[in-house]
Design goal:
With 211 residues, the chain is mainly alpha-helical. The chain is built from 6 helices and 3 strands; from the N terminus they run ααααααβββ. The protein has 3 domains: 85 residues, Ferritin, CATH 1.20.1260.10; 64 residues; 36 residues, Rubrerythrin, domain 2, CATH 2.20.28. The two termini are 29 Å apart. The chain binds fe (ii) ion (2 copies).
Length: 211
């Protein structure tokens, strides 16, 4: 079964969040030593509940804008507006700065080992709780396209979880993997691109190398 992306992909990789997080991370804490206390638990103590809520809203809203702008850029490129595509990508990068600043100020960033555990658990929650519920509801409403998309996403989350799990087990290994992401369903392949995606059957030209 051949599968095509929703819109044609532009020539440059739309990698909107390539900056290392550490620069902003250290910078924010240097100028805001109270940053670590801006958690939900610390909010009562600081009396800044509304600010914490606003930081969360900022993180969510800016993160959504990043994805939306990336897609707008692909649409602009596919419609023959390369300059508009660049504009959407540039602003997506800028929104990424806002989203990262809000997340860092919330004090929820930890070291890599804890981040891997957090990422693993959130994939498992998506696979075991969220997507099964979404699939049930889509089927109840006879929305087969949405049900299929949720099913694929659920299956891919399991793969993401496996990758995080094995990264946790081999944290100190120095071998660097090359990852290839299926741009149709989000499956992640290590080192070798499969002939077809094991989840959505997309052909190998739908995989994007990510280093
Ligand atoms: Fe995932
Ligand atoms: Fe796929």
């Amino acid at each position: 079964m051949g599968v095509s992306p929703v819109v044609s992909m532009h020539s440059e990789p739309p990698w909107w969040c390539t900056q290392r997080v550490t620069g902003g991370f250290e910078g924010v804490f240097a100028s805001d030593p109270e940053g670590l206390r801006r958690t939900t638990e610390g909010a009562n103590e600081m009396g800044n509940e509304r600010t914490v809520k606003n930081l969360k809203t900022t993180y969510t809203g800016e993160s959504k804008a990043i994805v939306r702008n990336r897609l707008f850029a692909e649409i602009a490129d596919s419609e023959g507006y390369p300059q508009i595509g660049r504009l959407f990508r540039a602003v997506a990068e800028a929104e990424c700065v806002h989203a990262k600043n809000a997340l860092v100020m919330l004090g929820e960033m930890k070291g890599t080992e804890e981040n891997l555990r957090f990422a693993f658990e959130s994939e498992m929650r998506a696979k075991n709780t969220h997507y099964p519920e979404f699939i049930r509801e889509a089927e109840a409403e006879e929305d087969r396209k949405a049900s299929q998309m949720f099913s694929r996403a659920r299956d891919v989350e399991e793969r993401h979880g496996q990758l995080y799990r094995s990264a946790l087990d081999s944290l100190m290994k120095e071998e660097l993997m090359v990852y290839h992401v299926c741009e149709v369903c989000g499956y992640v392949a290590e080192n070798t691109v499969p002939d077809t995606c094991p989840i959505c059957m997309a052909t190998r030209d739908h995989f994007k190398k990510v280093v």
